[in-house]
Amino acid sequence: MKPIRLLKHLLLPDWFVRRVFARGDLAAIGAAIAASEKSHRGELRFVVEAAMPLTALWRDQTPRARAVDLFSTLRVWDTAENSGILIYVQLVERRVEILADRGIAARVAQAEWDGICREMETSFRDGRWREGALQAVTRAGALLAQHFPAGASNPDELPDQPLML
Question: How far apart are CA 11 and CA 6, in angstroms?
Fold first, then answer.
C-alpha cells in the first residue's frame, strides 16, 4: 500500500462525485442505458466510485480488481444469457474499467472494451464527464447490438440508473 495513494482516497470528499456527475447527468446516463438495452439483449451497469474503501486500499487493490469485486457483488454476472457489462469509473485514480460476462467476452474482444475505457478517460481528463459517459454507453450498446441483438424476449435484468458509491 502506497501512502500517497491511501491519502488521495481518504481525503476525497463524498460530494466530489455529485460535483462530477450532477443529478441531470445521472438521469441522462440512465436514460441512455435504458434506450440502448432496447436494441440488444445485453445488460449495462454503470458504477461510479469516488474513493475506494479502506479494505481495498489495504490489499493494494487495483481499479481493475475492484471492478471485478463489484461485478460479483452487484451480480452483473447473474443474467440469463451471461450478457452483463459493468462500466466502472474510479474517480480518484481516473481509471475506467469495463468487464464483460462470459457470454459477451466470447464474442467481443477485451481490446474493444479497453478502447472505450481510454476514450472515456480522455473525455474525463478534459472535464467532459457527461459526454464521455454517454459516448461509452452508446459505443457499448452498439457492440452489444451487433453481437447480442434484441430478440422476442428482452427482459431488463439489471438497474439502468447509475450507482454512486
Answer: 9
C-beta separation of 157 from 41 below 8 A:
no
Q: Which amino acid is at 51?
A: A
The per-residue pLDDT for range 91-132, each reduced to its tens digit, is: 999 899 999 999 999 999 999 999 999 999 999 999 999 999
The Cα–Cα gap between 56 and 47 comes to 16
Strands 95-100 and 84-90: antiparallel
Helix pair angle (129-147, 110-125), 10° resolution: 160
CA 114 to CA 135: how far, in whole Å?
Answer: 14
Is 51 strand, coil or helix? coil
Q: How far is 83 from 96, CA to CA, in rounded Å?
A: 19
Query: Which domains occur in the chain, in start order?
Result: 3-150+158-164 (3.10.310.50)
pTM above 0.70, yes or no: yes
Closest CA to 26 of 17, 36, 15: 17
